[in-house]
UniProtKB/TrEMBL annotation:
Domain of life: Bacteria
Name assigned to this protein: Amine oxidase
Gene3D superfamilies in the record: 3.90.660.50, FAD/NAD(P)-binding domain (3.50.50.60)
GO molecular function: oxidoreductase activity
Biological source species: Paenibacillus sambharensis
InterPro entries: Amino_oxidase, FAD/NAD-bd_sf, Zeta_carotene_desat/Oxidored
Amino acid sequence: MKIAVIGGGLAGLTAAAYLSEQPTVTGVLFERSPQLGGRAFTYEKAGFTLNYGAHAVYGLDRHTISVMEKELQLSFGSRQVDKRKVMYEKHDQLSPAPLDFVNLMKTDILSPRQKMRFAAEITAIITNIHQLKHYPTLGHYLADSEADENVKELWEHLVCSNFFITPEDARKVPGHVISKYYHNLFLSQRPVNYILGSWAVITNQLKSKMEQSGRWELAMQEGVDGIRYEGGRYVLTTKLREESFDNIVFAMPVQQIIKLLNDTPWEPFMTPYANNKATEVMVYDVGLSQVVARPFSYISDMNNKLFITDVSATDHTLVPEGGQLLQGVAYLSDDFDTEQERKAYLDERTARMEALFDKHYPGWRDAIAVKRVSKKAMVQSVKNIAGNKLLPVRIENMPFYFCGDGCQGKGELAERAFSSARDAAAKLASAARAGLPELVGI
Ligand SMILES: Cc1cc2nc3c(=O)[nH]c(=O)nc-3n(C[C@H](O)[C@H](O)[C@H](O)COP(=O)(O)OP(=O)(O)OC[C@H]3O[C@@H](n4cnc5c(N)ncnc54)[C@H](O)[C@@H]3O)c2cc1C
């Protein structure tokens, strides 16, 4: 069986690495840009290692990357973010984020009675008896809940920070999604970790697996721009070639898949996914020539919905001797009538972000060695809120396979890319082993 994987991000590389273990499968991975990694692309600048998307892994011991570590014999180091230095700031008051029972007891954002209430909520999530899973959204649950406003705000803020979304969107996340996510996270012994050395440590190994198999080709700077069905096979076109395959794995953001399948016989299958909105944030990365302050590992501003991570406090491998790498992220609303309104909003978010840096990292402006600001970075191609529809790994009566962070799978963000890709590869591998012609051409 000859397979094409379109997209060389975390999802495409994962799918191809798994498939490269199948002796009867050959393949080509097409990547339109000059480098692999997609939104997890890593680059070096002035001695700093910068990621486009950050490399925090939530619930490492229960995460798909740990399954892949065993199955694909990956090797990587990781380090836990110091939970005692993860802070929430509310009305100028700093307090440990209630990530576990120890922090929960220490936090000042809840009264003793509210702490008991929140502890009971965590226990119910862990034991899987929380009513939240029966509610269409977090907002519906909170409206019904008799909890105090502070407890409701805490729920909302937790979801904002793990899903990278605004409070308005947090209220739209389905109850079953939240209860599953936090069931996993609260049970984890390793809630927030960094892969030491960035995502490149993973992507390099996935690439090596493909190359070592001798059955896979990497087609770099070859964006796929056309697809058709001909003679029982799928023909892909790029600016350099036309090649036919038995099956295709689409490993790109859902919006780009829809674009590629426009004006093909498969366009109608994509209609239910056409109105999905992506999760977008503003990212403010600064590499500093020296450590200007290290009051915490992570500070989340509850009033303004933005956070700063001292990435190098956990992953020291990313900075030159004595340097510091800070990443600011602001959740973004996507509801604007005019471009002017959107621009004013982004300017306001930037000013607030810089004010948060000024407050906790005095002197940061004078120590800047590297700076990268992106006012619109796509964290997840489909925001996991009611009204949006994640793309299944397979769509009934459609021949292709889909993976990426906009697809159905376990977890959110990069975990969704890994888990959907692993699933797509497993389905294709079992078809290849059974010798099934996985072709349902139109
Ligand atoms: C600011 C930010 C912070 C983040 N932080 C975290 C975090 O801490 N933890 C976490 O788990 N996740 C995080 N993420 C999310 C994570 O980076 C993404 O979920 C993940 O990288 C998505 O991988 P993917 O393979 O699904 O998609 P992509 O990375 O988008 O890969 C798709 C690839 O397909 C290629 N492509 C597209 N069209 C074509 C075509 N026609 N032909 C050939 N190639 C094509 C693209 O060039 C790209 O390389 C963050 C993201 C951002 C932006």
